[in-house]
Q: What sequence folds into this?
DNA sequence: AAAGCCACTGTAAACGTTTACGGAGTTAGC
DNA sequence: GCTAACTCCGTAAACGTTTACAGTGGCTTT
């Protein structure tokens, strides 16, 4: 009882060979009598197949990995919520890796692919280094990367269109008559940070406004950093009349500071976030935010991975999810329907 | 290249036996020359050990499971954030199961223990059925249950003290002069729902107030349900002057409804939640909430599990985490320091 | 110079499955 | 009644490791 029954145990009890046991358990054609004996022996013993042995033989672990920087981030959470049921329905278990945005940890996870404990991986690297690219190329199992990856990288790729997203937000704020539109960004050496930085400069000019470096402040992608960055920006440019924040957490920090300083949102300063996480509806005032389709991206990644596991070799695909602007009181005030 | 190198490949290239290769790779004493040859062969081939084969031999998967109802719930999230790094530091991978509060799914996960793909499990069952107990007793790997479990169940157990928590909140509201304290609960057939229901009745009486069934409303543990339940309660008892909500999501729903109906918080109705999730600081006004120590419970569960994996047989332990009341503007108003 | 010892290495078995192959028994065909 | 064909089953090999055991050769010891 301490060591569970195996097909050998069943075979002994049923008086047949282990091959017959395996055949019965896998539903291969067998004489009714044999099947009956095996099934009842299995039931009496409380047999459960050993998935490790099965994996060794089949060379498939039935596990897929998901690696992201920080499971506390609601964006990743939204993705997991889509991914988990899809994988589960396809018969895969989910192995979770939270890497703290540490490149070495990410490389470790990629190395893990070689250990064969997962059949594939969905990864969201915050920064893509040469090491990453080398591992992608050498990987012996399919990888889907969420976030942009250089042309020609042999992985499936799901992208948000930060550029279009930032443009939507800037146009919206400009359309509301705002002319001093600040931008509170995350680190410039991250994939989203860099993309959004370039997109902001472009969008501002496209709206016919001058690009003013003083209007841009950089912190990290968390609430407290957002608050600090916003405070610096307000001190430098007191007459700012709108703030675009590179994600919702930063925007929450911005709201904290504006409230503390007694500036009214949106009358004095309109605020918009990005990612349209659940937080946006919780904030006060509710936060206008650019949805970059977190759930859709998660779903797309899972579908790409499952698809490739089914099909085997195939040219890498790129899926781009379109952004949408969700307007709420933090920019348009209470007149919400 | 399509099929990775194994120790056999290395053995051939290095001109030694697979036993020697294994010994070198595991750091057992070997002649320097042999070690050199094996190591360089391994490096040239880009060898990565196959963890499945290793698991089969060692009978350990180096994976631990975490099963909860819904990964979107911030309480579970807070737990995972504690659990994941601890397990990782101890050399275990985390396999995630989101069961949608479906008892059959939970049983499936428990059956999975027999498949040996995890060495242990942390589980948060919303309801504990006889089937659960049977599986707990028959399990061939250690289980830690977060949430109460009957006396004598052979699993380690981490509990929140709902009773003390509810009492803290009721005393707080009573101390603020509130006399009509409503209670918005989740389903009574769940572990926390039942516990909090009993605790509310007890706490109200202990405060010297009459127990009034009209003041209690039941929904589910989500924001929208909380809003609906609150609306029903307000209609039935318009003069309620405080609301205790069985979790923060319900409390957010309550705030939504109160705002919509134009009741001021906390002047007209004081609101308190439970769990003290991140949401509490995001809400407007910031939400007074009873912390049931989600992070601590996650940490305790991980420690119990790791401990038992180290020690082997041992009497089941019960760890109870003390609640704390975190007061914020939703009960005490703006006069916050 | 024979015996014993030691350090190192190779052979083979084991972990629990799946599956190719061939043998035994049954039925059918002539 | 003999062969052919078919059904069912058992033996054994394989998946990639780890490890008990025995073997090899060189040294030391007497």
A:
């Amino acid at each position: 009882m301490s060591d569970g029954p195996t097909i050998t145990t069943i075979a002994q009890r049923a008086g047949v060979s282990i091959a017959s046991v395996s055949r019965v358990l896998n539903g291969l054609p067998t004489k009714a009598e044999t099947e009956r004996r095996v099934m009842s022996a299995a039931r009496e013993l409380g047999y459960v197949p050993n998935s490790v042995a099965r994996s060794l033989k089949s060379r498939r672990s039935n596990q897929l990995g998901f690696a992201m920087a920080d499971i506390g981030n609601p964006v990743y959470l939204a993705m997991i919520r889509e991914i988990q049921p899809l994988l589960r329905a396809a018969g895969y278990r989910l192995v979770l890796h939270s890497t703290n945005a540490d490149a070495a940890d990410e490389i470790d996870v990629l190395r893990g692919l070689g250990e064969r404990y997962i059949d594939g991986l969905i990864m969201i690297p915050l920064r893509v280094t040469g090491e990453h690219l080398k591992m992608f190329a050498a990987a012996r199992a399919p990888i889907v990367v969420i976030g942009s990856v250089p042309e020609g990288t042999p992985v499936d790729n799901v992208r948000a269109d930060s550029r279009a997203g930032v443009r939507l937000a800037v146009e919206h704020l400009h359309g509301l008559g705002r002319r001093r539109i600040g931008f509170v960004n995350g680190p410039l050496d991250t994939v989203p940070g860099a993309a959004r930085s370039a997109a902001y400069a472009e969008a501002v000019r496209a709206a016919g406004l001058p690009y003013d470096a003083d209007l841009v402040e950089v912190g990290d992608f968390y609430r407290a950093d957002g608050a600090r960055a916003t405070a610096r920006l307000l001190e430098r440019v007191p007459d700012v009349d709108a703030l675009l924040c590179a994600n919702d957490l930063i925007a929450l920090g911005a709201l904290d500071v504006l409230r503390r300083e007694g500036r009214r949102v949106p009358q004095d300063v309109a605020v918009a976030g990005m990612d349209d996480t659940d937080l946006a509806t919780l904030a006060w005032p509710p936060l206008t935010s650019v949805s970059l389709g977190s759930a859709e991206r998660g779903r797309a990644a899972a579908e790409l991975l499952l698809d490739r596991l089914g099909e085997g070799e195939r040219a890498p695909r790129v899926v781009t999810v379109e952004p949408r602007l969700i307007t709420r009181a933090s920019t348009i005030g209470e007149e919400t329907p």
